[in-house]
Amino acid sequence: MVKKFILLSVFTVLLTSCANTAQTQLPPATTAPSNIAAEKETAAPPTLIPEKEPEYVPVAPFDVTSSASMTKVKSYSGSILSEDGDELTLYTSAFKENGKFVRDDSADWLLELKLGDGSYYVLYSGLVSNGNIYFDVVSFDEKNYILVREISTAADYTKVFCVKDGEICETTELDLNTLSQKNTNLLYSSVPFYR
Known about the structure:
The chain is α+β, with helices and mostly antiparallel strands. It has a domain at 63-189. The protein is built from 3 helices and 13 strands; from the N terminus they run H-H-E-E-E-E-E-E-E-E-E-E-E-E-H-E.
């Protein structure tokens, strides 16, 4: 019983000591309320961080198509990036089983843009493991863009292409947040609609 009383007494003294120390160590007020208004008037306005300029990386044209040994997945024709009648075609080397592409192994994918003047551009070419390549054609502020999406177990990203100064370019001009705005029109999508 005596041990409990001593332990309780020591605990009470420590608590009282901590409370008194906390009260005596509060910092004094440094600024009177009348000085706060004066400080606000003389403070410099915050500086704005300038928006990053979009980048444009030209895509080199190809002389001939390289899709001879591949299977056509989807195709879209229209005034995509030029007024001459363009064709955007997605190919894969994945084989079909029961009418559906088998995606359990790596397969080559190719997205090819053929402009109305006959020139070819490869917007995607590579191996995709356990996944797919999709493309969308969107219109934003009266300008068309091609979005190429890789969705697989190893990656999930989107590349954006447009015309800049008469050249086909990969760009950072349009991001996915902008695409969610109401004035973006989806002209075509190769993504299947789920029922």
